[in-house]
Amino acid sequence: MLNPSVNDLVEIVGSKYTLIVLAAKRAREINLGAIPTVDMPNSNKAVSIATQEIYEGKITYTRIKE
């Protein structure tokens, strides 16, 4: 089970699509050697660490309007 929940994360980022893209990009960065920004990750899996970082507000993004 994902902790924090998907519903909580969607409220933070605005849409499921944004959540998926943001978590995937950050998880790739972590897999390539980036240091997690959370002090005590709930898991050692990259996607779990990425979602925890999003939930804690340590990962930001900018929407580009075309």
TrEMBL record:
The UniProt entry, under Pfam families, shows:
RNA_pol_Rpb6 (PF01192)
Q: Which UniProt keywords apply?
A: DNA-directed RNA polymerase, Nucleotidyltransferase, Transcription, Transferase
**Keyword Chloroplast listed:** no
User: Does the keyword Magnesium feature in the UniProt annotation?
Assistant: no
Q: EC number(s) per UniProt?
A: 2.7.7.6
Name any one GO molecular function.
DNA binding
Under the heading SUPFAM superfamilies, the entry gives: RPB6/omega subunit-like
**Which InterPro entries does the annotation name?**
DNA-dir_RNA_pol_omega, Pol_omega/Rpo6/RPB6, RPB6/omega-like_sf
Q: Which catalytic reaction applies to this protein? A: RNA(n) + a ribonucleoside 5'-triphosphate = RNA(n+1) + diphosphate
Relate the protein's function as given in its record. Promotes RNA polymerase assembly. Latches the N- and C-terminal regions of the beta' subunit thereby facilitating its interaction with the beta and alpha subunits.
Subunit structure, interactors included: The RNAP catalytic core consists of 2 alpha, 1 beta, 1 beta' and 1 omega subunit. When a sigma factor is associated with the core the holoenzyme is formed, which can initiate transcription.
Q: Which family does it belong to?
A: Belongs to the RNA polymerase subunit omega family.
- Name of the protein described by the UniProt record: DNA-directed RNA polymerase subunit omega
Organism of origin: Isachenkonia alkalipeptolytica
